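About this split. The held-out portion is used to measure sequence recovery: a designer receives only the structure tokens and must propose an amino acid at every position. Recovery is the fraction of positions where the proposal matches the reference. Here is one held-out target exactly as it appears in the evaluation file.
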């Protein structure tokens, strides 16, 4: 689900079904349910509020 949120945040013109299939979901309805359970909003709502997705998917920074 984290990969899906990251793809939604950075893919301006990608369809949600393409993102679901890229994350190995074969059933779009199941993908929508899982996304909503994990992040509290549907993929469509997340795409509309794409600025909030950066808060949903924290960036991991590695310093050496």
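Reference sequence for scoring:
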């Amino acid at each position: 689900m984290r990969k899906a949120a990251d793809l939604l945040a950075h893919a301006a013109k990608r369809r949600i079904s393409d993102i679901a299939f890229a994350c190995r979901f074969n059933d779009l309805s199941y993908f929508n349910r899982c996304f909503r359970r994990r992040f509290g909003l549907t993929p469509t709502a997340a795409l509309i509020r794409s600025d909030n997705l950066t808060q949903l998917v924290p960036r991991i920074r590695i310093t050496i």
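Annotator remark: Residues 39 and 56 are 7 Å apart (CA to CA).
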